[in-house]
């Protein structure tokens, strides 16, 4: 049960993952990257430096689960259900709130090009991270 995504994560391990995930360069690489094995290998190495022994598959599985749970709670809150909650919601909100969203922008010649914008930005948003 040691290998794969089956072993439970401790609170300290999740906090370490969130601290690595919150780094701007990691967030940037994770956003919109479909083939991200290399990023998670790097994250696993960074976690080992912090004393957390997890392989890249476990890191990716936990990343996906946390992101899914966050979006579920966020959707519930946006729908008016504030009873739904999760342990690291505020940490994840700080990480995922500023995730760039690709939008199509019309160019002068009538074509569309993809541009990245950020949601919910405020003057102090990046300075607090």
Automatic annotation (TrEMBL):
Residues 7-95 form the Myb/SANT-like DNA-binding domain. Transmembrane segments: none annotated. It comes from the Eukaryota. InterPro entries: Myb_DNA-bind_4. It holds the Pfam family Myb_DNA-bind_4. This is ZSC20 protein. It comes from Chordeiles acutipennis (Lesser nighthawk).
């Amino acid at each position: 049960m040691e290998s794969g995504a089956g072993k439970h994560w401790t609170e300290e391990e999740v906090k370490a993952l969130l601290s690595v995930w919150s780094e701007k360069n990691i967030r940037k690489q994770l956003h919109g990257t479909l083939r991200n094995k290399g990023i998670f290998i790097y994250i696993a190495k960074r976690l080992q430096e912090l004393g957390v022994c997890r392989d890249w598959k476990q890191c990716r599985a936990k990343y996906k689960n946390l992101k899914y749970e966050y979006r579920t709670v966020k959707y519930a809150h946006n729908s008016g259900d504030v009873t739904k909650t999760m342990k690291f919601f505020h940490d994840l909100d700080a990480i995922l709130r500023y995730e760039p969203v690709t939008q199509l922008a019309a160019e002068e010649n009538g074509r569309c090009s993809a541009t990245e914008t950020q949601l919910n930005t405020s003057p102090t948003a990046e300075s607090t991270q």
